[in-house]
Amino acid sequence: MKDFFLADCAQHENKVLTSSFVVVSKQVKPKKTGEPYLALTLGDRTGQVEAKMWDNVEDALDAFEQDDFIKIKGLLNKYKNRFQITIHKLRRLGDSEVDFADYLPKTTKDIGELWQTLAGFVANFQDPCLKALVEAFMSDPDIAEAYRTAPAAKTLHHAYIGGLLDHVVSLFRSCDLICRNYPQINRDLLLTGAFLHDIGKIHELAYNRSFSYTTRGQLLGHMVIELEMVHAKIAQVPNFPSELKTLVEHLIISHHGQYEFGSPKLPMFPEALVLHYLDDLDSKMESMRAHFAREVCSEGVWTGYNPSLARPLLNTAKFLEKKPADSRMWKLQLLARRALHTTIARGPIFLVNIPNGGNRMRSRWIKLTLGLYLSLVLIACSNKAPESTDTNQPATSTTNTAKTQQAKPKAAAVSVVVPAGTVVTVRLGQALGSKISTPGETFAATLASPVTVGGNTVIPIGANASGIVVDAKPLGKFKGAATLDLKLTSINVNGADHNVETSALIRTAKGKGKRTATMIGGGAGLGALIGGLAGGGKGAAIGAVAGAGAGTAGTVFTGNKDVVLPAESALSFRLNQPLELR
Fold it and tell me: d(Cα 404, Cα 529) in Å, to the nearest integer?
């Protein structure tokens, strides 16, 4: 059994570890020198981590493949607030050397209880035909076993053993609540759609070593497989109405809700519409939960970029944690100020009403109150110090610290807003391409030109930035077109990372036999190709498009070749939302 799991990364930061993992993804990429390095995603049942192997790569290139188990020795540290492993050496493991349960995430809920919850809902069906149809699936031992085990998706949501059942039970509960609010909904029909909408995943996905697609799943998809399964079971239900069969079929093929999401039809009756929105809601809520769980050790309130939701996420629990402390300090200071004000205001009254020793008593009272006030102020200042102290700066005297704290409110009020629509030009720190890059992959860059506001430079040349590959399709996947869609996600200014939003890509262009560049975003069309070749051959097309309203790096085609953006290529992005800098 494994003695280290990825959930324990925080306890092993900056340490060399030896452990085993399943290879979730494997890519061979070029360094700036042109030599290859390995970019891996490694996983176990508690999560995934990015890993890089920079040295002795030639010996490891053909030693293993994706979905293999490997044992590695390497350094675990953080890069841009995310854990990663720098691999020193590795070897492939045989199946007899691993316990498969260590590598596949599994639901923490009781599978038997979830199955009984599902059966309880079905037992209360009023429509005998729909009840018989669902029970025909649940009584099939092979289907039932697979339904209880399969994940609901490969990566996007409920991607763990038991995820399909967990997802459907959650959907049943949501559907039940919706039907109470909308009595016109056919409850049995809606729940039948919820039970069947993803049942084809038991054949679409493989989940013995890691989560991947079967050949049948790749070629047909789960909706086509589900229609075949439903037709087979309906044939076993006597006198099943043809009209009801058509409604069940529509529930299946429309549940993705939109054409671009794979639905051949849009939802066209109430139960189909409700199923689509509740399915979408449940998957997105689980995607958020899982993303927060993966970044539980992160110190910030914002997560990294979530590829499936196309945005970073705010952890509201962490965000609200700071407010009670601030509130207490404010109350302490307010109490002290009130006490001092009361003492000073009542001073003359004490002097008049206490004839013998009154001055002395008043003096003691004032001293006591002043002492209390100063103590509370010092406590407040000491609690505030960590927020404003720079550990890289030399220590200063108490007087200088007090001056800094007095000046702090004035400095905090000063901020600069980079308006939406501002073009940010960066240079890539690595090579990217439609063939060598994968969706969700992050990339590093530096600003190629300063960002100015009102004639003043607010982000200098050389500031670090990062982005993400939104989509990458190599040549030949669909009629010879190749695409590479990029997005900028953050910029580091004065040591602080600032999340940025750029316009989303709507579509990609197809280039055939000639150079083509397209930038789509906010209604923009073709922009200006501003990138230049950095160390490449004559005629190579590199760069990005900065068109009106555009915000995503464009796609560049050279003849019928794949899109290639060498390191140092200049790319331009347009801010979709204002960026506030303090």
Answer: 47
Put residue 519 in one of left, alpha, beta given phi > 0 → left and psi -120 to 50 → alpha: beta
The three-state secondary structure class of 187 is helix
Burial class (CB in 10 A: 0-12, 13-18, 19+), 577: middle
For 208-263, where are the E strands, in sequence order? 212-213
CA distance linking residue 567 with residue 290, whole number of Å: 33
Q: Who's near 470: CB < 8 A, 6+ residues apart? A: 307, 310, 439, 485, 486, 487, 504, 505, 552
Q: Encode pLDDT of 104-128 as tens digits.
A: 888 888 999 999 999 999 999 999 9
Name the residue with tokens 């050496």: 89
CA distance 4 to 16: 12
Alpha carbon distance 517, 31 (integer Å): 26
What is the rounded CA–CA span in Å between residue 340 and residue 372?
9
DSSP secondary structure letters along 309-334: TTEEEE-HHHHHHHHHHHHHHHHHHH
- Within a 10 A sphere around the Cβ of 478, how many other Cβ atoms? 10
Q: Is 549 exposed, middle or buried (0-12, 13-18, 19+ CB in 10 A)?
A: middle
Q: Is residue 39 classed as helix, strand or coil in its secondary structure?
A: strand
Strand 15-30 relative to strand 432-433: parallel, antiparallel, unpaired? unpaired
Q: What is the pLDDT of residues 122-159, one digit of tens each?
A: 999 999 999 999 999 999 999 999 999 988 777 677 77
| pTM given for the model | 0.54
